Amino acid sequence: MLRATLLIIGDEILSGRTRDVHLQHFAIKLGALGIVLAEVRVVSDAPDAIASALRDLAGRTRYLFTTGGIGPTHDDRTVDALALAFGLTLVEDEETLAAYRASQGVASVDELTAESRRMTRRPSEAVMVQNADFPRSPAIRLVLPTGGATSTTDTGASELFVLAGFPRVAVAQLDAVLPLLETGQKVLSETRAFPVMESKVAAPLTQLVARHPAVEFGSYPQEPKDGKYETQVVARSTDATALQAAVKDLEGLLDK
Amino acid sequence: MLRATLLIIGDEILSGRTRDVHLQHFAIKLGALGIVLAEVRVVSDAPDAIASALRDLAGRTRYLFTTGGIGPTHDDRTVDALALAFGLTLVEDEETLAAYRASQGVASVDELTAESRRMTRRPSEAVMVQNADFPRSPAIRLVLPTGGATSTTDTGASELFVLAGFPRVAVAQLDAVLPLLETGQKVLSETRAFPVMESKVAAPLTQLVARHPAVEFGSYPQEPKDGKYETQVVARSTDATALQAAVKDLEGLLDK
C-alpha cells in the first residue's frame, strides 16, 4: 500500500487560535491518487520539535508532507529544522531568487531584503516544485537521507515535500506536487445507513467483517435527529468485486 | 510548563471522511487551565498503531488524552490497544455495568449483550470519570505505567484520559475531566494587526523578539481583502507585565 504522513507545523494550531484546514484536504487529495494517509502529527514552531518529528517520521511512509513554518519571520523555522534534523546545507535557490527580483523589479540579488532571500532557501540536495499561482513560493522536494537511500527511485525511502501553512498557497503547492507522485490502488468506499443505535449493528457486523477479509468496515453513529438514531457503516476496499459483494451483504445486515 | 498531548484515533479522520473537531476544542479548553497542547497525533483504528503511539507518548507530557476508538463495534479498539501497549488486564467496571442495567431495565449483568459489556471495560488499574450527560460513557483515567511511576501524585508520569470520538460525548467527558487536572500558568495573548505584507514586519519584529525574551511572538499573514494586505502579530506570555511591555513596543512596530 502506498502511504503518506502529514506533519502540520504551527503554534497557532496547537493553541487553538487557528483551526487546521490541511488534514482533510490532504486526505482527500492523496486518497484520490490511492495514497493512504497513515498518520498526521501537529507540532509547534520550535526547531527541535520539528526536527525530532522529521527524523522520527523519515522512512516510515513513501511520502512525508509538511505544512507551515515557511515565511519571512523569526517563527518560520521549518527549513532550518530540516537542515538541523539531517545535517543538510542550505542554499538559496536561483530560480526563486529570480522570481523575487522580477516581482520587486530589481536587477541584482544584492538589492533583495534579507527576509526575501531567507524565503528562497532549500537544502542543497533538494529541488523546488513550482506552482502557477505563487512563483515566489515553490514547494521543496527532497528524498530524505535515511537508510542510505539517496535517489528518488528508491521506493523504500521517504520523499519529503515542504509546503506553506497559508492555506491558499498550500493548496496551490499541493496541486503542483500531486502529478509528481506515484499512484496506488484507490480505496473504493460505500456507505450504508441503518436506522438503529450502533450497538444494534455490532454483532451482525462482526460476523459480516469475518466474511469479507478483503474489505475494511467502519461503523459511525450519527447525531440523533428528532430522537431517531442512525448508524452509518462504511465499507472500503481496493478490490471492486470484493467491495460489491460486501455491500450486498451489508444491505441485509439487519434482516435476520 | 504544564503540557498535554492529544491522540486522535480514527480511520474516518485520516481518510478525510470526517473532519476533526477535537483538536481546537481541546486546545482552547486546556489552554484556559494553563495547560499547553504540546503535540497532536492522528492515527488509524489499528490496535498496533494506537498501542505504538501510546507507548511513544507516555511520559512525554503531564497529560495524555485520546479520542475515538470507543464503541460497541469491531473497529473500536482503543481499550484493547491500551491493554496491549502496557500489558494491562481489562475488567468490566461495576458502576458502568449498573448504568447499562438501569438503562436496559434488566436485573442481571448476564442479561446485557456482549456489545454492552464490551463498553464497560477498563484496565484494572484505571478508574472511570463519570459525566452527567452520558452515564454509560465515562472517560477512563489511568496513570501510565512508565518510569516506574504508579501513583497519581507522581508528576513525572503521564496521566491518561481515554475519551470517545463522538463529539457530543467527548465534550461532556472533557468537561467532567477538566476539574481533575492540575492548572498551570495561563498563557496570556494579545494580537495586533498591521496593514502590510508579512515581509514588512519581519525585520523590526526580529529586533522586538530579542528585546522581550519572556514573550513569544507569532506572525500570521491574512488573506488579502480588496487587495489590502494584513499581518497579525500575536504576543504570548504567562507574565502579564512582560506581555504589556511587549505589546506597547509591538504597537510601534512600523513607526521607524
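Chain A is about 35% helix and 25% strand.
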